Amino acid sequence: MLREMGILRKLRAGDPAGLEGLMEVYLPYVSVIVWNILRGAMTAEDGEEVVSDVFLAAWDQAADLRPGHVKSWLGAVARHKARNKLRQAGKTLPLEENVLELPDPSDPADRLTRAEERERVRRAVEALPDGDREIFLRHYYYAQTVREIAAAMGLKEPTVKTRLRRGREKLKAMLTKGEETGEA
Questions:
Q1: What is the Cα–Cα distance from 161 to 108, expressed in whole angstroms?
Q2: What pLDDT does residue 101 have?
Q3: Domains of the chain with CATH codes
Q4: Which of 64, 106, 172, 184 stands the most exposed, by the fewest C-beta atoms within 10 Å?
Q5: To the nearest 10°, the Cα dihedral for 33, 39, 42, 46?
């Protein structure tokens, strides 16, 4: 925490050593987040650009950074910038590993059941056709509006609404089918 406070003090003073210190501590963390989202959909240069943009944002917004919250702030900015890079390139957004995470209950049996449910939902979402899956993820996991999705994907808004409804119906059918047959 003391090191972080020193880094923030330098950043706020406009000292490049503050940025260097921030990168020294958090570059691996930010890089992992960016590459987990880009997952080979972009070039190495694109990924490096996104990582650089995250640290540039920290430099530009140094006054907003608070000790003890820098890591979470950098993580949020990294996720946002990586997703935007994918959207700008017209690439499909991935379903992140932890996107369906909910706090685990204390009972180990309940934790196992919850983990199995998350995996079933993940498989069902990944089984949707590419276009429907992307619309579904953009709307439900990345909180884009129907209008934003339509603009980003070159579709009409009623088409997006129809494909969202169709995606929900397919997911419901896939998930209830497993329950009826007793599959986990």
A1: 39
A2: 43
A3: 2-88 (1.10.1740.10), 108-181 (1.10.10.10)
A4: 106
A5: 20
